[in-house]
């Protein structure tokens, strides 16, 4: 009797097995996964459309600006606009063009060695992860975001007023050097960090010192990135207006280095961007302003092409080596 009760209790308390329950669970998971897949597909399509729309708008705006400048400026590129001396009749841009090249060369001559050397110290010599390196990086990134007008006011107070350089080519070049120094420094630092540590370990394994390893193994591999930062700094030097109005002035003349020597560095000058701004603010030579904008645009495009070509050549040379 007890055996019969036990059997009856076990059969009554045992859970009923549902045939095909595993198949239903797999089907449920498949349905959920299909819904998630459809949702991901919709989100991906939406994000792709937003990216394409942004790229299209950027391209349209760029083409509109370039086309507008070319249409309004190319017809007024006359020979008188490229005469060697400026006067109120021809409003020649040649003195401003020469001053732009001189100003950019002086600024880079001061900023590039300091920026590259500082980046080499932070990456190769300073202790990695130290607080000093973090503070320097934060300061450099902060300096990159400061408006150019602040640099211009600083240059006016320090170089023009305190050092009694007046409005001069040297004051403008020093201000631009301080302005582009963070750009050169940060791009060089990122280029050095991108070089694999195996290059350094290989140099040390062959018995080379740290200095020799840096200049023979690390720097050649980082040259394309460094060159890109230099070209970015050069483009900022070429297109700067606000900082140079307060430091270099707006006199359209080429410094007389032949007659004055180094004293010509203290002459007031006008760069191409300042020249364009001055003509536009006067309102008397709007057509010549558009023509100057065409020349400035061509200069910027040539600098970008030069940077791309140089970077490709450097990368090709590094891969062949």
Report on the structure:
The protein is mainly α and 321 residues long. The chain contains twelve helices and no strands. It has helices at 2-13, 21-73, 94-125, 131-144, 148-162, 169-193, 197-205, 210-239, 242-247, 257-260, 272-282, 286-320. Helix 3 (94-125) runs antiparallel to helix 8 (210-239). The longest helix is centred in the first third of the chain and has 53 residues, at 21-73.
Summarize this, please?
With 321 residues, the protein is mainly α. The protein contains twelve helices and no strands.
Summarize the SSE layout with pairings.
Elements: H1 2-13, H2 21-73, H3 94-125, H4 131-144, H5 148-162, H6 169-193, H7 197-205, H8 210-239, H9 242-247, H10 257-260, H11 272-282, H12 286-320
Helix pairs in contact: 2-12, 3-6, 3-8, 3-11, 4-6, 5-6, 6-8, 7-8, 8-12, 11-12
Keywords:
77% helix; mainly alpha; 0% strand
């Amino acid at each position: 009797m007890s055996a019969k009760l036990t059997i009856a209790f076990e059969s009554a308390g045992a859970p009923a097995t549902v045939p095909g329950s595993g198949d239903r669970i797999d089907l449920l998971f498949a349905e959920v996964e299909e819904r998630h897949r459809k949702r991901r597909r919709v989100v991906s399509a939406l994000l792709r459309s937003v990216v394409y729309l942004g790229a299209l708008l950027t391209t349209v705006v760029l083409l509109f600006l370039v086309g507008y400048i070319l249409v309004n400026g190319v017809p007024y590129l006359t020979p008188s606009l490229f005469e060697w001396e400026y006067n109120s009749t021809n409003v020649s841009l040649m003195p401003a063009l020469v001053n732009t090249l001189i100003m950019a060369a002086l600024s880079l001559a001061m900023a590039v060695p300091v920026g590259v050397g500082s980046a080499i110290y932070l990456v190769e010599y300073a202790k990695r992860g130290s607080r000093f390196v973090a503070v320097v990086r934060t300061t450099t990134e902060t300096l990159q975001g400061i408006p150019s007008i602040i640099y211009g006011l600083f240059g006016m107070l320090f170089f023009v007023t305190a050092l009694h350089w007046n409005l001069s080519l040297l004051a403008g070049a020093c201000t631009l050097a301080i302005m582009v120094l963070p750009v050169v420094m940060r791009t060089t630092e990122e280029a050095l960090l991108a070089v694999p540590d195996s290059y350094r370990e290989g140099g040390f394994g062959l018995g080379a010192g740290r200095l020799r390893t840096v200049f023979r193994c690390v720097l050649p591999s980082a040259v394309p990135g460094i060159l890109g930062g230099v070209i970015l700094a050069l483009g900022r030097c070429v297109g700067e207006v606000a900082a140079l109005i307060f430091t270099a002035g707006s006199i359209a003349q080429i410094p007389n280095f032949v007659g004055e020597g180094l004293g010509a560095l203290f002459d007031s000058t006008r760069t191409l961007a300042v020249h364009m701004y001055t003509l536009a603010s006067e309102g008397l030579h709007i057509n010549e302003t558009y023509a100057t904008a065409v020349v400035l645009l061509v200069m910027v495009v040539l600098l970008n092409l030069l940077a791309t070509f140089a970077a490709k050549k450097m990368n090709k040379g590094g891969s062949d080596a």
